[in-house]
Amino acid sequence: MCGRYVVSQSVDDLADEFDVDRVDVKERLEPDWNVAPSKPVYGVLTRHRRDEPDAGAQRRIRTLRWGLVPSWADDPTIGNKLINARVETAAQKPSFRRAFARRRCLLPAEGFYEWRGETKGKKQPFFIHPPEGTLAMAGLYEIWRDQSRPDDDPDAFLWSAVILTTDATDDVGEIHPRMPMLVDRASWAEWLDPDRTDTDGLTSMLAPATPGTLDAYPVSTEVNRVANNGPQLIDPVTL
Description:
Organism: Haloactinopolyspora alba
GO molecular function: lyase activity; peptidase activity; single-stranded DNA binding
Oligomer: single chain
CATH architecture: Alpha-Beta Complex
Pfam families: SRAP
CATH topology: hypothetical protein yedk fold
Number of strands: 13
Protein name: Abasic site processing protein
Largest sheet: 8 strands, mixed
EC number: 3.4.-.-
């Protein structure tokens, strides 16, 4: 699974790295070394322009809330439970199948945290990251409509996202059996294409990270508290 991750780059840097056509954010997020569920995060997605439907789809970066709220949900608090989705079954699950078919995204991260150990409260956190560059975690997004608000209220629509997970590679699996599904740059366009709806083809396109492409090292248990933040959280510690 993935329960915390790191994004310290600016939205402009991420827009350049992910070849974005449009930056669609109301407020720029502060660097975050302890991204937790329910927080706002940056997501990269491709959508058609409503004012020019024939102009072609645009790749955008926008703010999403981590924790997917299906469009049919009565209450947005369901998103607190839907932070991860297994890639093996997401295309069939009622909470995710509509998003898997048409609303896929990338969630940029410098790395993510996982915990190793059997005893609750005494597990050791590790920071898992690429030697360089940014991870593109496979995600799904949804747009939930708050029926209690008028249509012209900008807060009537909640954009939210879930991270897809897969079996961890051997080196990462020693820490935790699951990890975020990563999308390589060559597959970004296909994964984000809203006109591609063949879920079997999309699922087969995804593959776990190649063993040896991620590094991991232990970090302080300070990361366990969501209120803690700052670059010191990814400093290595000696066990």
